[in-house]
Amino acid sequence: MRLTGPLRGVVVLLLLVGFTWLLASALFGGDSSLSVRNIFTGTREEPTQSEMRPRRYKCGLSAPCPPKHLAFRLVSGAANVIGPKICLEDKMLMSSVKNNVGRGLNIALVNGVTGELLETRTFDMWAGDVSHLLKFLRPLHEGTLVFVASFDDAATKLNDESRRLLEELGSTAVKELAFRDSWVFVGAKGIENKSPFEQRMKNSKSSNKYEGWPESLEMDGCIPMRPPLEG
């Protein structure tokens, strides 16, 4: 059967488009066989598993942080069983896996200008000596970021001076922090206002998730980096 003039023109046009697609795929990459087949059949390629999977940002945040901001996630301990976690810029600073967390206050110090980890320490607030915490907090340098996550009991040994020092870092909850409360906090030496990064869950028999302990707290966000200090 011979093709009429208009029909022949359509077939030639389709062949020309197909060969052009093949040539482009060969030059620039891609699955040419699928592309040509889709053109002629009208089918659409289904997304792959990797394309369907939600994109992951630093420390598991749901969205990326703006430039000159540090991504973080804090998780307080669960009862006296599961240890806390402190993540910064997709690096786990403190966790049970790293074997550097313990009962009480788990604190990571970070350079607020560079985002560099300075030190991590744990302070037993049930049977420990609060003087160790005081010696740790008193000499902090201006601009130092302070990440805190509780585990088990973070309050029993706190005294007026230790609470005041943590208040000066931007905490509003530490004043009322009590036995076995869950607490996560990010503050800074020299902060002018109260920190927006703080959560506290009160230990209460009527609302505790675990027997004798409230539920674990989880907090994440983006912290603006501090400009270099003048002089």
UniProtKB/TrEMBL annotation:
This is Protein fam3a. Pfam families: ILEI. It comes from Crenichthys baileyi (White River springfish). InterPro entries: FAM3, ILEI/PANDER_dom, ILEI_FAM3C. One of its GO terms (molecular function) is carbohydrate binding. It comes from the Eukaryota. It is found in: Secreted. One of its GO terms (cellular component) is extracellular region. The keyword Cell wall biogenesis/degradation does not apply. Keywords: Disulfide bond, Lectin, Secreted, Signal. CDD domains: ILEI_FAM3C.
